[in-house]
Amino acid sequence: MTGSVNGMIELDGLTRRYGRTTAVDDLTLTVRPGRVTGFLGPNGAGKSTTLRMVLGLTTPTSGTATVDGVRFRERARGLRHAGALLDAADVHGGRSARAHLASLARSNGIGAARVDEVLGQVGLDDAAGRRVGGFSLGMRQRLGIAAALLGDPPVLMFDEPFNGLDPEGVRWVRGLFRRLATEGRTVFVSSHLMGEVEHCADYLVVIGRGRLIAEESLDEFAARVGRAEVVVRSPEPAILTTALADAGASVRPDPAGALTVTGVSAERIGELALGLRIPLHELSPRTASLEEAFMALTAADVEYAARESR
Amino acid sequence: MTAMIRPTTSTHSARFRDLLAAEWIKLWSLRSTWAAFALILLAMVGLAVHAALATHAGWPDWPAEQRAARSPLWDAFPTEAQMFVVLAASGVGAVAIGGEYASGLMRTTFAAVPRRSAVAAAKLTVLTGVLTLLGALGAAAAFAVSQAILADVGANMSVGDPGALRGITASALLVPLCALVGMALAALIRHTAPAIVTAATVLLLVPTAVDEDERWSALLRHAMPLPAWQRLMEPTGPPAWLDNPYPATVTGAWTTYAAWAAVATLITVTALSRRHP
């Protein structure tokens, strides 16, 4: 193993099989500090299994997962090395939020003052004495995030952290992730929705059926998969369509009379129309959303797809 | 450029003492713990008072042989009380581990403390420690109160009498022993309710189905916690009228206690360390 940079998560040939099902298939990648890495894939792609293996909760069938170059199971205590929110339900409903965090903190030799600090950070100060069983999912997510922050760790992992959060909560969590990354930490955030991470992630890891599909920066991903379209509206759609087809574009008319054009730029369409002396009522370039691109990318690997009803 | 965040790896951050404190917090922050502890104490003391009062009322009319055959220990530690103790104590043990698995908290715990055997050791230490103290408190109180009532008719014994201290100790230790069995079963089954039912079956029901007629079945019976406890409640050996061809011994009874505790501990540590939370 090469010298490991502080705060890196490294997966090397990581594989986990359950019987004949391969949940994670030969995953090799590095999650680096100082940025938010989105971990994307459809449900059942193996994201949670991967995160559990990183934390030593699930033993890999083969390959290794390390944090700071060390397998997590070899640590005596974990919270100062990596903080994680795996499942907001992983608490005992009979305890108060403060008691839950206090026992976690104490197990890692972290002072009681830190418990109140993180409770304040996630906005749960007022609910600290209440039993977790009465918490909403959003409150449990916040409690899970508080637990992840307890040890002030260089590596943070969040599995579907946006579930159950209201819009304000989503915005707050995105801001928190950005700040943690700016502080130089490794922030690894899983989601099955591109829309949840595209506003806070710098880098993307996409998996499907346990295999790596893409690993690149958000910008590279957008440039690579973003399919440029131009929506054109004109009183002379037939003439324009012929001219565009001659110019090598493909044209798709819609019932409202607009043309969706791919293959030529908006500038070229404008010049063509001017040459033909055809007025244009609309000429708007559009980039396919990252969500659409992500769906297209993982379509083949979706484990549970809804069939169209007949 | 980003600042490097380094983990603070001070040597004192991995103290076992901290794990004990963490388990202590977990134990006391659940209401069910308080309820079970109250039930154990109430059952031990309350049912001892009940039994002693019954003896107190009947004593003047009892023939001499009946008086001679009766040990004052039986009023201090009536079997009904131990039924409650077995259920409540094994329940506390089952909840301590089964509740943590069933809720998913075990994943959070093991992510925070990857050294699972240390977590298991801390849980075992805290729970057996607390329940030993509770058992000692309950047994001492049950003995003191029942003997004070019996003293009124001269039917009591003192701590110094043969078998008295042994009876108190055996009743006290039955509490942590049952908790250990509850923990071990919960570590294997990983769900609270089935673990409690299994513990009650193993500890309470199975002994009633095994008699002492054959050598092998007598051995099997002597190797179970509740019959072992019963043997330790007999200051002068098994009552003569039983005429048992394969009588249990005091040493055998203590060996049964020790063996169950050791095996339960081993199962708990192994299951927690090996299986995926």
Automatic annotation (TrEMBL), chain B:
Membrane-traversing stretches: 34-53, 81-103, 124-145, 165-186, 193-210, 254-272
Keywords tagged on the record: Membrane, Transmembrane, Transmembrane helix
Repressor found in the keyword field: no
Superkingdom of this protein's organism: Bacteria
Name of protein: ABC transporter permease
Source organism of this protein record: Micromonospora lutea
